Amino acid sequence: MIRQKIGNRVKELRISKQYMNQEEFSKKIGWDKAYLCRVESGKQNITIDNLVVICNGLGITLSDFFSAFDTPIKYEGENYNGK
User: Fold this and answer.
1) Spatial CA neighbour of 51 closest among 70, 32, 29
2) Element (H, E) at 24
C-alpha cells in the first residue's frame, strides 16, 4: 500500500512537472526504465537516496514530494510491530 502511494506520487509528479514519459525521465535521472516502472507501479521498494534522485530530476524537495500526504501513512507490512 505505501509503495503504491509513493509510486503514484512519482508518476503524478513526473507527468505534471516534467511532461516526460517513463523512458525520457529514466534517461534524465540515469535509471533503467524497468526500475522506474516498478517504482511507479508499487512493485519496487525505493530508498530515500533514490527518492532524492527522483526529486532532483523533478526539481522539487522531499518536502514537496511528501506534501501530498496530508494524513499519516500507515505501514501494514508483514514486519510491522506497531499498533
Assistant:
1) 29
2) helix 22-29
CA nearest to 42, candidates 77, 78, 7, 69: 7
Instruction: Over range 14-25, report the average pLDDT.
Output: 94
Other residues' Cβ atoms within 10 Å of the Cβ of residue 35? 14
What does the DSSP 8-state code read for residue 80?
-
Which of 38, 4, 6, 36 has its CA nearest to residue 20? 36
SS3 content of the chain, % helix, strand, coil (to 5): 60, 0, 40
Q: pTM higher than 0.85, yes or no?
A: no
